[in-house]
Specification:
- It is a single chain.
- 41% of the residues lie in helices and 9% in strands.
- By secondary structure, the protein is mainly alpha-helical.
- It has 3 domains: 70-135, Dna Ligase, domain 1; 143-227, no CATH class; 234-365, no CATH class.
- A hairpin with a 5-residue loop joins strand 1 (51-53) and strand 2.
- The radius of gyration is 38 Å and the shape is elongated.
Length: 370
Amino acid sequence: MEPFLEPWPDPESAPAPGPREPRDHHRRNRFITVAVFVIAVLVVIGVGTGVLLSSKGKATTVTTQPTPASVEIVVSSGMNASRVAALLEQNGVIQSSTEFLRRVEADGTVDKLRPGTYKFSRNEALDSVINKLEKGLGEPNLKAVIPEGLAASQVVPILVKLGMAESGSYAELAGQPAKFSIPKVGGSQPSVTTLEGLLFPSTYFLQPGDGPSQVIKAQLAAFESKVASLQWSNAVALKVTPYQVVIIASIIEKEARVPEERAKVAAVVYNRLAKGMSLGIDATIRYAVGKWTGALTQKDLEVDSPFNTRTHKGLPPSPICSPGLAALNAALAPAKADYLYYVLIDKSGHHFFTASYDEFLKAKNQSPST
């Protein structure tokens, strides 16, 4: 079969050609068509984003909450740099906790970031974040300054003055270590009957409503963080446990009034222990009788207590106050001297140190009244 061919139109029968539309008109029509199509697609996408069809065929409108421009961060006392970095990264303040830690290590402020309540912008410049934390440009809610050398009972008036509720329970809670997480001392948790000595002295920024329990938790966390880098390995050569180092440090804190004498007081303690002598330190007796000022009476000096280091040889069973880093360092690095005695020689707190009992008695007779 021959292929079917459509005949060519007869030129004479074809309609006369009319006027041709301009080419620009066709382009304009195509542009309008494309523009309408794009707009329609965008409308469909927008509607699809705002309205989701549920499995039952019902429409649910999704409302997107705007991300806050700023975030409030509470840096608690005792919080180390790693925890601060993690908190900042989790809340979108910084992009890299690793870079933050590298910077504060370079600045030498790893252990000097200030507690407080801070307001940061999200993705705030790292320099700005670090500057605020190093200078303490936050807003503390309640500032509790707890100095070195205070027993738990001596901290209570500080909390009372701040208006903290149930302040009096602070000393009671310090005697209940089972209620808290005991900090590591020299790499391990000691078995303790009191938190005395482990309540790190520092400045604490507390939140509204915080009570003695929150203060103690902050102090215990600060202790573990602050003392972790000390030379605890020295305890082996000194023939004491790390916890006994804390006990000795607490004695040093109460006895040494002049910074350069801390290591000398430590030497006296270790030398007397090595010789099997009683320590004969009045500060431990004051702890036993709860008398921190005024002269000790004969009755006080004869109190039947393991803290009476005149009548009981060896160290007291637990610390007598909260020592600071300087006293702890002195307890780990006593002076290399044969001192066995010391006596106050002026009202500025200086002591006379000697290995001779006769020299001690002579100096004692010339000692000013305290």
